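hey can u run this one w/ NAP bound, need the structure tokens asap thx
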Amino acid sequence: MTEAGGATVAVTGATGFIGAAVARRLAGDGWRVRLLARPGSQGRLPLLAGAQPVIGELTDPPTLQRLLQGAQAVVHCAGAVRGATPGDFERVNVAALAALLDAMDQAGAPRLLHLSSLAARHPELSHYAASKRAGERLLVQRLPAARRLILRPPAVYGPGDRELRPLLDGMARGLAVLPAPRTGRFSLLHVDDLAALVVALLAGTVGWGDIHEPDDGHPGGYDWQQLTAAVAHVSGRRVRTVTVPGGLLALLGAANELRARLFGPSPMLSRGKARELRWLDWVAAGNAGVSGSGWVPRIGLEQGLRDTFTG
Ligand SMILES: NC(=O)c1ccc[n+]([C@@H]2O[C@H](COP(=O)([O-])OP(=O)(O)OC[C@H]3O[C@@H](n4cnc5c(N)ncnc54)[C@H](OP(=O)(O)O)[C@@H]3O)[C@@H](O)[C@H]2O)c1
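ok here u go:
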């Protein structure tokens, strides 16, 4: 599959932040897209001319059969990013992936481009990170190298993001409540650059068989002061910073987990998320392994922040 013409790509998680951006980019570049949404979520599918929706559960074999029929590739963006227990994450990030792989065995030999996470580097930090690592391991065991590509994005931001956005909005209003030590460093990637990367990789064979940690090309990532300064510049406001002590963050995470156990729904901030946030090195390895695809990140931080705030 070296060009868009006529090829069908199945996208899971197309109702989510990254999956919707990938689906839009694929359709815009002339690929035929088939989009999975679970019942009740289909209203959040992006409206794209010619896109074929498939409604059903990710673990339901007939649904997966309809999703995969005739598809040359699958982009697996569905994933659990919030939860309180190991099961909350494993059900989606491991068991549903296993069901998808089973269905792929029946559906000829489509390739799978899998959205993992930089968190998979440190499975010891959180149930989320452990499930993302387990998903990678499963994929490597089950699919030959030529049919799998794993992306570990860093923090992804842009219009539609719900994770970083509250923090960025607070900064733009003049107060940065930093959940991590000021010495921590992290990479960033705009969602439209990530979507463009996915499409570039689907169009060829560069990078297949490997795990990649793409970023926006900013050497060494960012620290919190650089991010705060960029938001201050874009918003035209002076931004004061307050760092949340690690103990307090962990306590908030524990309280959220208890509330989830009693009342649902799953929290974003758990004790594991607190440990992830306080980890000092979330700098991606960079783009060397994917540069042969012709992709280069185009959206710098200030431009990305501008369209995040207006998107
Ligand atoms: N955002 C980031 O900064 C970031 C960074 C690194 C890696 N990632 C990875 O990228 C992927 C997408 O993340 P995102 O930010 O786009 O998350 P998101 O906005 O929460 O979207 C998650 C998607 O997964 C679907 N999903 C969740 N549970 C499901 C289930 N049980 N069955 C079927 N579908 C299910 C959701 O469907 P519903 O709409 O029905 O809930 C939604 O389409 C995830 O695997 C995540 O680990 C994200």
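Residues 13, 15-19, 38, 41, 44, 58, 77-81, 92, 96, 115, 117, 153, 155-156, 163 surround NAP (CB under 6 Å). anyway lmk if its weird
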